[in-house]
């Protein structure tokens, strides 16, 4: 016995009721549940749809769908940061290396002109402000997209949340606390590399990837173009 389209839609509703909000994860779970229900019906054809569904759901254990959501999140988190890394590496190839070198030299000169600790603090605070403001704008855009489609995608969530890169700001706060008022040339060069990487990270996560969100989702999800 095969599930009807109405029963498939009921499974989507069932996953939403169990706190699975992302359409791609819902689809994965619905496929799994549907196949399992059909297998259960082969062995117990007298069971109702709801009874077979509940038997299938119990196989997910005490945490229900949460383990599946967690595993899927880990996979897409790695995919997101691989995209960031692939773009980041391009800034050290010709011709993008010109941009990276210019940023590095500008920061290096800044360290020579301004007190090192306060210059580092200024760039860090500037980066944090940009991240926060961009996060605010992207959150508005994410809500607008959801209102138009009534669907969320887990990879889309990573793109619009900047991959959680706002958490890196805590690292810079700790570094500022450890940075002495007067630093050696070697430490200045290291700090310049770190700040250059920080600026590139902001640019990639806040501007490049969000501008490619449609391309990313089309590539990741074959079903996306049908939604």
Short description:
This protein is mainly α and 227 residues long. The protein has helices at 5-17, 23-43, 49-58, 66-90, 97-113, 116-149, 154-160, 169-178, 185-211, 213-220. The chain starts with a helix and ends in a 7-residue tail after the last helix.
Overview of this structure, please?
There is one protein chain. With 227 residues, this protein is an all-alpha fold. It folds into two domains: 60 residues; 160 residues, no CATH class. The longest helix has 34 residues. The mean pLDDT is 87.
List the main descriptive attributes of the protein structure presented here:
227 residues; mainly alpha
Shape: elongated
Summarize model confidence as the mean pLDDT. 87
- Say how many strands there are: 0
Order of helices and strands: HHHHHHHHHH
Low-confidence stretches: none
Radius of gyration from the CA trace?
24 Å
Q: Major β-sheet, in short? A: none
Structural class: mainly alpha
Gap between N and C termini, in Å? 27 Å
Proportion of strand residues: under 5%
Helix content: over 70%
Count of helices?
A: 10
Q: How many discrete domains?
A: 2
